[in-house]
Amino acid sequence: MNIKTITTSDAQGCYLGKTIRHDGLVLRRGRKLDEDDICRLQGKNICHIDILKITENDVLEDEAANILATDLVAEGTYLTDSLRGRVNVHAAHAGLFSVDPTIVTKIHTLDAITLATGRNMTTVNAGMLLASLKIVPFMISKDMLEAVKRDIEPALRVFPWALKKISMVATTFSDEKSQRIQSKFLETTSTRLRQRGVQDILKHQILHEPSMVQEILARLPLDSPVLFLGAEASMENDDLLPSLPHVTWTRAGIPTDPGNLMWVGKDHSVVGAPRDIIIVPGCARSLEHNGFDDVLDLLCSGHSLTRDRLDALAVGGLYKTTNIFSERGLQQQEYSLRSIILAAGKGERFQNGPKPLAAWGQQTFVQQVHDLARAYQPLLVTRPDLVNSITSLLPNTQILSNQDWKNGISSSLKSGLAEIEDDQDIIVFLCDMPAIRPETIAMLVQCYQQSDGSRAFAPRYRGTRGHPVIIPRSMFSMIKNAHGDIGLGPLLKEGINLCTVHVDDPGVVLDIDTNDDWTLIHGKMHP
After folding, report:
1. Strand 165-172 relative to strand 200-207, pairing
2. How many domains does one find in the chain?
3. Residue 444 φ then ψ, to 5°
4. Which pLDDT value is given to residue 333?
5. Which of 125, 279, 306, 381 is 20 to 30 Å from the Cα of 218, by its Cα?
6. Is residue 354 located within the same domain as residue 427?
7. 413 and 495, same structural domain?
8. CA atoms of 27 and 20, how far apart (whole Å)
9. What does 355-368 look like in DSSP terms, one character per residue?
């Protein structure tokens, strides 16, 4: 920046090169001096000042900012007047804000220019600040300005909410609880749609049965998308909603969390233009932001739900970095989750003493399984002769003495259920299965959180069903009616009252019954 010194009387219309602070007078660098400024300077006996020396090849900060900002904006935006080299970009209407990051990157090849924007593909309201462009020095050269202009094109725009009509179908089971939950689900989703400008919302609630689903799909308007709010999570191609005829799925699950159990596809039974079909994930029962919001943003702003667009949601698609599965209340569901650890077996084939007290790494079986269950208020059921030993290992855990332990695992389950509160579901751990990975528990609980709470959940490894098992309160009567050494397997009929979650964790099927089992499994886990 070139500066020269001239007499104050000749400085009117010039730009001040250095800030003046003198006897209460403050004029900042870069100020264009007017007649009043000259009088005030002369009144302070300031006879000479430093001004910016401007050549024909220089462009002042405000002019340069206006020129670049005008080239950067597209439809749905407006600019504020430049001030000190800064121009702000605002939303002209509500909609989805889009920014091309490649253009922003090109601008920043020069240190003299900065452009800060809001997050790409986010919802905005009219008047909201979208971006701010700043020319750092008081002037830049015309050559620099022209070089930047050659590399940029409109990169900031707001897509208006364009979708005006949509159909929603909530499927329910026959019980009152499922119907109540799904009714709330319809209302929550309606709120989301109204926020995005959708005016005509058709709502239907039907039984979760193939004939009912196919019948309603045939009766819905052909010119608008369809949202399915399933009574249960959709995880397999042969589940009820994913197996809809004439529907091809662009993505079976999207890369966001929460929200990954969403299916997005096209219904090709519509002649001409296939309509969008979305299976909404259970986490959308809450109004907290999740992947469904991102997909709705695209749909309601007129974007095609292509594979590339859905894949792009992965970066930034993790919405919570804390334990996202611990607050079921946020999901607008009624029951919290409590763990029951069963440690009252006879263990007759295990010769190294009571299994709960057997070594597992630097601790015991019961301590390891307790660590897996810790997040869910563990309740441990054991034999009377082991109560004191286990209490010394886990002094802050509720421990029940099952006096009827010789009558089998069903007696321990009943003992545990007697201590469960009215607003709790359970997750059942077996004390002789300490090799389960913590991330498997998290995955299983996530699927449960995203369901309507009417089904049990169990992990499956390479075709074999395992533990732990999550059981909703609605199924407690099955356990209370069981007798003898009957575990959960015979009580749960897969596909009717049990959902299995495929996991890459052999620990869910590795129970330690004998000394040889312990030697083999413990040796692999703790070499």
Report:
1. parallel
2. 4
3. -65, -45
4. 43
5. 306
6. yes
7. yes
8. 5
9. GGGSEETTEEHHHH
Determine the Cα–Cα distance for residues 523 and 360; give it in Å rounded to an integer: 10
DSSP state of 172: E
Question: How many whole angstroms separate alpha carbon 252 and alpha carbon 268?
Answer: 17
List the one residue out of 491, 502, 499, 434 whose CA is nearest residue 463.
502
Q: How far apart are CA 307 and CA 281, in angstroms?
A: 18
Is residue 124 within 8 A of residue 46, CB to CB? The reply is no
Residues paired with 113 in a beta bridge = 135
For residue 165, list its beta bridge partners.
200
How far is residue 385 CA from its own chain's centroid? 47
Same domain? 395 vs 433: yes
439 & 521 share domain: yes
Strand partners, 341: 380, 429
Asked whether residue 342 is assigned to any structural domain, the reply reads yes
Pairing of strands 379-382, 398-401: parallel
Domain of 65?
58-160
CA separation for the pair 336, 498 (Å, rounded): 19
The b-or-e profile of 351-385 (16+ CB within 10 A means b, else e) is eeebbbbbebeeebbbbbbbebbebbbbbbbbbee
Give the DSSP letter string of 487-522. -SGGG--BTTTEEEEE-S-GGGG----SHHHHHHHH
Domain boundary among 253, 280, 314: 314
**Shared-domain flag, residues 140 and 200:** no
pLDDT at residue 241 greater than cutoff 60: yes
CA-to-CA dists, residue 310 to 19, 87, 98, 279, 292, angstroms: 52, 33, 15, 14, 11
pLDDT band at 209 (very low <50, low <70, confident <90, very high): very high
What's the pLDDT tens digit per position in 352-372? Answer: 789 899 999 889 999 999 999
Helix (H, G, I), strand (E, B) or coil at 127: coil
Please choose, from the candidates 62, 81, 80, the residue with its C-alpha nearest in 3D space to the C-alpha of residue 129.
80
Same domain, 338 and 464: yes
Q: DSSP letters of 394-445?
A: STTSEEEE-TTGGG-HHHHHHHHHTT--TTEEEEEEETT-TT--HHHHHHHH
Rounded to an integer, what distance in angstroms lies between the CA atom of residue 284 and that of residue 356? Answer: 40
- Largest Cα separation within the chain, whole Å, is 107
How far apart CA 27 and CA 50 sit, in angstroms, is 12
- 3-class SS of residue 306: coil
